[in-house]
Amino acid sequence: MDFTTRYKADAIKDSTIFITGGASGIGAAMAERCAELGAHVMIGDINATLGEALATKLRNSSGNPHHYFIETDVSSFTSLSAAFTTALSLSPSNHIHHVIANAGITDSTSLTELPPSPTAPCPPPPTSTLTINLLGVFFTTRLALHHFRLNHHTEDAHLLLVGSMASFLESPPMMAQYTASKHGVLGLFHSLRLSAGDQAPAQFRVNMLCPYFIDTPILPTKAKLLLAGVELAKKEDAVDAVVRLCAVRAARGRCVVVAPRSAGGVQEMDWEELKEIEPFTGRVVGLIRAGGTVRKAVRLVGDVGRLAGWMWVAGALAAMVMGMTVMAMR
């Protein structure tokens, strides 16, 4: 799939798109772009304040009254099932054409953080990230397949799973939950890509989006500090990839990576690469790491200054200069 070619983005006009985790971050950016193109957007999220505000904004900016917020907890099948039912009732066509399983969180608690004493009771690890990022996607997938059966054979029935570059990469213990959940989403995609099951609609299609790190609320400060100086992927590239996958009905079984632009930007991982992902990820990560040293150093100072404060950066630089002076005097 060539992401440099033009496509008819307005092909999603009048379609109903249900986005989980659609009240903030990439999900909100997806919602805004889809509304601009004339789609009817259903925002499923647990954050009612952000969700209602975004739905109101979309209605006012587009002049389309069919943008709604639906309070949704993807970790609860009951809540998610009710959200799908509501989305169907609010859809002008009484159908849902695209479901974007985007809801996700992260937790920087390390799996290897254990009690000081080996004789002390070991508390259970946090599992909220696994529950929302993986179980929530399983729930979303099941309900999407169920409701897609209502669609007429001429209508689209598209499920887009949002994974991550963490679906392929190794990660430190502080990202164990997140990485495990995104590996799980990739495994689900593998299964759905081969067969959606006997009860799935014939026209059902599935794709997967795997962004590299993007500066959104899901990225914790610890991770931002670790990534200081590293070029991030662009939110607008991810959104354009989503719209393309929704608009181009020939897009089936595609796994699309959104890398930093210096590492190729939006690109497809083909099926052979999906079988052996190490060559692909090695190539992309190698390109990311190959960025100019000076450019990365400048970005590092800017990122750390923004996150930790410029006084902290000034103090660190002063200490560095003092240390170099002392070394030179020896």
Short description:
With 330 residues, this protein is an alpha/beta fold.
Number of domains: 2
Oligomeric form = single chain
Strand content bin: 5-15%
Number of strands: 8
User: Which architecture of the largest domain would the CATH scheme give at its second level?
Assistant: 3-Layer(aba) Sandwich
> Would you tell me the structural class of the helices and strands?
alpha/beta
Proportion in helices: 40-55%
Q: Can you summarize the main beta sheet?
A: 8 strands, mixed
Q: How is the CATH topology of the largest domain named? A: Rossmann fold
Low-confidence stretches: 292-301, 312-330
Round the mean pLDDT to the nearest integer and report it: 83
Any idea of the CATH class of the largest domain?
Alpha Beta
* Rg on CA atoms, Å: 22 Å
Q: Any idea what the CATH superfamily of the largest domain is called?
A: NAD(P)-binding Rossmann-like Domain
Anisotropy-based shape: globular
| Distance between the first and last residues' Cα | 60 Å
Strand order in the sheet with the most strands: 3-2-1-4-5-6-7-8
Q: What is the tally of helical segments? A: 11
SSE order in H/E notation?
A: EHEHEHEHEHEHHEEHHHH
Give structural notes.
- One of its GO terms (molecular function) is oxidoreductase activity, acting on the CH-OH group of donors, NAD or NADP as acceptor.
- It holds the Pfam family adh_short.
- The chain crosses the membrane at residues 309-329.
- The structure is a single chain.
- By secondary structure, the chain is of the alpha/beta class.
- It folds into two domains: 9-291, NAD(P)-binding Rossmann-like Domain (Rossmann fold); 292-330.
- It is 47% helix and 12% strand.
- The chain is built from eleven helices and eight strands.
- The protein has helices spanning 25-36, 48-62, 77-90, 128-148, 176-194, 221-226, 235-247, 271-275, 277-289, 293-308, 310-329; strands spanning 16-20, 40-45, 68-71, 98-101, 158-162, 205-211, 255-258, 266-269.
- An eight-stranded mixed beta sheet has the order 3-2-1-4-5-6-7-8, sandwiched between helices.
- Strand 4, helix 4 and strand 5 (158-162) form a beta-alpha-beta unit.
- Helix 1 crosses helix 7 (235-247), helix 4 packs parallel to helix 5 and helix 10 crosses helix 11 (310-329).
- The longest helix is centred in the middle third of the chain and has 21 residues, at 128-148.
- The radius of gyration is 22 Å and the shape is globular.
